[in-house]
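[Automated response] Your request has been received and processed.

Submitted sequence:
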Amino acid sequence: MSRPARWFHGGRPGIRPGHRILPPDVTGTPTAAQILQAMGIDLGIEDDRSRTDLVYLTSAVDLARAYAGSWQLTGRGPHGTLYQVTPGPDAEPDPDFEQDFPGLCIQASRAEVVRVVQVRIVLAPREFQLAMLKYTTWIPGPCPRCGHDAQTTKPGCRCTGCICEAVRIDPTAAQRVRPDTTTRR
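Generated structure:
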């Protein structure tokens, strides 16, 4: 697998360079799906995003920073940390992102911290949600929030957390509507 030169992970503070980032079933840290659920955000993350035996890494600093900034929502600390990491040898593409964002995310049994990029990251839930919308693929059909069809979003809709908002902040979001029902929403 071809890998970019740099991978990032956002999460709990206090991990030092040379130490490992381990999966939630070892550390007890919340998964991405649990963090989103605590925020009341349903982006339709599939079951494999809830896997507790893997760590998730991304080549997108803004996405990793968003996850770091969501750490305070877990109730386990006031802020998160952004790390540059080296993935474990078993790293493979994250199937939730690979179709629409090739090379954006990988999953592995562990990662090693290369350096601490930024500490004390705190994002409002709204900032986290906006970062997630940038990397969301939409399933055709009615939006559970506003009822608009994902392929014919209404320009005047002020709904949040759906394809209408995604298109407002990123016009290319309309290109990420996929008929495959196994993709994320």
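Summary generated for your ticket: The two ends are 27 Å apart (CA to CA). Residues 125-134 form the longest helix (10 residues).
If you did not submit this request, please reply to this message.
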